[in-house]
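INFO  loader      accepted 1 record
INFO  loader      residues=297
INFO  predictor   begin
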Amino acid sequence: MATPTLGARRPSAAWGRLKSVSMDPLESMGLPSKGDNRLLDFKTQEVYYNKIVDRYMKFCAASGGGNELEKQFSTLSISATDGASGSSLAQTTVPNVDLSTERELSTVVTAMRKLREGIVATARTDTFSQRVYVFIIRASILTKTRESYYPALLHLLERMHPTQPLSAPELHEFVGYRILDLVCRQQDFTAAYEVRHTFKYSDRRVNNVLDALIHDNWHLFWKMRKAVDGYQKKLLEWAEEGVRVQALKCLGRTYLSVDRRFVERTTEKDWDGLKKSNGVGWDLEGWRIIIRRPKER
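INFO  predictor   done
INFO  writer      dumping tokens
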């Protein structure tokens, strides 16, 4: 056996001290649409899904739940923009938010997109893929990432459900989400009625929201917002500003002056918020809001 000579090169001590870089298991996977084929394997999909759920649950537990969790969800806004090089994710940050927390949530949402692409690419429609889509839709609705929940919602109802039927309660749940998204975000009332007719859907709260938006009935809309569950409430948020502006227009055309508390109840927003966010230029005198002053004769 040959023995090393004195002049042979040996590994540098500095190189020997380098540690291997630890890669985030969610970020290590690439998008199938970008050429990473690892998520085209069924077993890999299942392992990756378990990691996503684990990270998502840890994130929810770390936030403390309740209002704080809702605040964390509201910090994330991911929008897809199509360019010459393909689609990209643009992230909008909110001031005074922990960047590490925002990054963690963004990582989870991006991982859900990767897994969804893998399932679509493999045309998988078994029980596992159905569970994945149910999870992705619910989580994406809470974070208001429409680029995640809406295509997933369409795929679940139009591609998966015919071959792997949802249970009656789940079908009712997700058809309701689709109707609410159509009327609250897209303002496509015709399509909403078509979906309701196709699936023979009936739900008092969802029907009331549909009627409220068609007839500009802000009183009914705010009432239903307090009656629906957390997922439905998130979808109603897409329509809130439009309802608020319509209510302000009606008040402006109807009254010369009005009680401040009445305006805040009508718009579901405090006076300072209306001045700052909606640019309301009315005057406040005590508890009375002066909308317009009568002309002197």
